[in-house]
Structure formats: structure tokens, C-alpha cells
Specification:
Distance between the termini: 58 Å
Helix content: under 10%
Organism: Streptomyces tuirus
Shape: globular
Protein name: AraC-type arabinose-binding/dimerisation domain-containing protein
Structural class: mainly beta
Number of domains: 1
Order of helices and strands: HEEEEEEE
CATH architecture: Sandwich
CATH topology: Jelly Rolls
Number of strands: 7
Largest sheet: 7 strands, antiparallel
CATH superfamily: Jelly Rolls
Radius of gyration: 18 Å
């Protein structure tokens, strides 16, 4: 392994950081539902969330019209619904959700926790109307 001190320009580059441990976050949030964690680092180019769906809970069908999403199941199991039919998922399943695809999520008996990652959505900006 190369020592970071030996990488040219490494001293001036942004540093990688460990942000947490999904196992610990899932265990700590076992009774919680929804987003247990969100990537919130300033200057980031990605959005990421750790989501917990309770046992036998579900997320209704929805689509992300503009962005592809990568979904990684980190705990539990369930079913991803799509136009192609139900797709069983479990810890370790890695799913690509192309932009525009409609999907739903249903957790199994022990719940389902997953991480989603996609390009960062631009923040809302106040702008003048054209011609104003």
C-alpha cells in the first residue's frame, strides 16, 4: 500500500473520511424508521441516505425522474417492486435504479435497511425571472 505522504499532491487534496458504520447505525436505529443517516458534508457531489423500513413496512411506488440511484441493502430483507415484477432483496443486494424507473419497497419480517446514493441535487436558488 502506498503511504499517503508519498502521493504527489496528496497534502493539498481533500481527505477521505470514515463517516460511520452501517451496522452500528442500523443497530442504534432499530426502533426508528425513515432516514437514519444522511450525507451532509459541505462541498459534496453526492447525496446518500441510510433508510430503515420497519418489519412488514413499505414505501409506496415512486420514481426519481432525473437521477439514477444505487441502492445497497445493509440489513434485513424484503421485496423491490417494479414494472418487471417483484425482486427479492437481502443484505448485500446491490440494485441500480435507472432514472425514471418506478419502484416500491416492502420489508420482510425483520425489517429492511438500505443505503441509497445518487448525484447531489442542486440546492434551490433564488433567481431573477427572465426579462425582469
Amino acid at each position: 500500500m502506498t503511504d499517503p505522504e508519498e502521493i504527489p499532491g496528496a497534502a493539498d487534496a481533500p481527505l477521505p473520511r470514515i463517516l460511520g458504520n452501517t451496522g452500528s447505525l442500523v443497530t442504534a436505529g432499530a426502533e426508528s424508521t425513515g432516514a437514519l443517516w444522511r450525507l451532509a458534508e459541505p462541498g459534496r457531489q453526492l447525496d446518500a441516505n441510510l433508510v430503515r423500513v420497519p418489519p412488514r413496512g413499505s414505501i409506496d411506488a415512486h420514481a426519481e425522474p432525473d437521477l439514477d440511484v444505487l441502492l445497497l441493502v445493509v440489513d434485513g430483507d424484503g421485496v423491490l417492486g417494479s414494472a418487471a415484477g417483484p425482486c427479492p432483496v437481502e443484505s448485500g443486494s446491490l440494485v441500480w435504479l435507472p432514472h425514471g424507473s418506478v419502484r416500491s419497497v416492502r420489508a420482510g419480517e425483520n425489517g429492511l435497511s438500505y443505503v441509497t446514493v445518487h448525484c447531489r441535487r442542486p440546492g434551490m436558488r433564488i433567481q431573477s425571472r427572465p426579462g425582469a
